[in-house]
Amino acid sequence: MDTEEIKKLIDEKGYLLADGATGTNLFDLGLESGYPPELWNEEKPDLISANHKSFIEAGSDIILTNSFGANKYRLALHKCEDRVKEINFASAKIAKETANSSERTILVAGSIGPTGEIFQPIGPLSIEDAIEAFTDQALALKEGGCDMLWIETMSSSEEMSAAINAAEKTGLPTICTYSFDTHGKSMMGLEPKELARLTDKYKDVVIGYGANCGIGASELIGSIKCFSKSVVNEDQFIVAKGNCGIPQFKGTEIKYDGTPELMARYALYARNLGAKIIGGCCGTTQSHVKAMSDALNNHSEGPVFELNQVIEDLGAMTEGNIQMIENYLNPNTSRDSSEGRKRRRGRRKIK
Predict the structure, then answer these.
(1) Buried b / exposed e along 218-238 (16+ C-beta atoms within 10 A)
(2) What pTM was estimated for this model as a whole?
C-alpha cells in the first residue's frame, strides 16, 4: 500500500485507530518475564494471531507486528542474532494473514524498535552498522507483507536517522515516534520540534511522526500539543500512541492504572489536537482500544486543550513536562508566572 492509499483511508474516516500493547497482552497469554516475545512468532504463531485479531475486533485499523526487538543486537542477547530475517518475516506474515481475514481494511505496520546500543563516539555502534541492522529487519518485514513501517520508542537523532535510512530501502511509507520522559524530552535530550525537523528531511518516506510510550497518557497528550505547535511539513501527520496510565507494582507484576474511560478521553484529546493515527502503548488492552474506538466513533469533536483540565482528565504531569508544554504554548516567555506555577503545582498530582 502506498502513501496516497493510506492518506485516503485517513481522509475517509478522519483518523485511523492503531492497536495497543504487545508485551502486556502476551504476558496475559503466558509469556514469561524476560523471554523475548519476538520468538513467539515462530513458537506460538496462533497466540500472536489471536492478539492481533482481538485488537481488530476492538476497532483497530492498524496492527503492529510483533517485531519491536527483532534486530540483531537485541536478538543477540538471546543468541538469536542469526534469525533476524526469519523472525521478522514470520511476524509480518502472521499479522498480514490476520488482517486479511477481516472484512475491513486493516493495515499492517512493521514495528522497529531501538538496538539498545550506544552510538559512536560515546559507544561502540557506528551509523553504518546500525543502518545495516535495521535494513535486514525492514526488508524482512516488507517481504512478509507489511503495508508500512513503524519506527518507535527512539530517543536519538542518530538512531532514528539510521532506521529511516533502512526504511528508505524498502519503499514503504514510514511512521516515526520518539519516547519522551519526565522533562518532555527523549532520553537523549530531544524535543518534539526536533523530530518534526528531522522527519521533514525524509519526507519522501516518512508520512507521519509523533510520540509513543514515555510516561502516561496525560504527558503524551502534552507532547502531542507540542507537536501541533511544531509542524514543519503539512503533508506529514501527527501520531499518538500513549501508555495506559502510570505503571505500578502489584506484588511482583507491573500493572498500568489507566482505565478504558481514561484512554477514551486520551483518544479524544489526541484527535482534537490533530493526531491522525491514535493508539495505545504499554498496558493498553483490547478493552481500552474498544473504549477508544467507541469514543472516537461517537464524538465529532474532542475536548479543547487546557493544561489544568488535561491533568484533571488524564492524570499527573511532572514539573518538567508542564514547563516544556508552557514553553511551546508561550515561546516568548521562558518561565510561567509565580502564581500560575503554584496553581499547577497544586493540581499536578491529581489522578
Answers:
(1) bbbbbbbbbbbebeeeeebbb
(2) 0.93
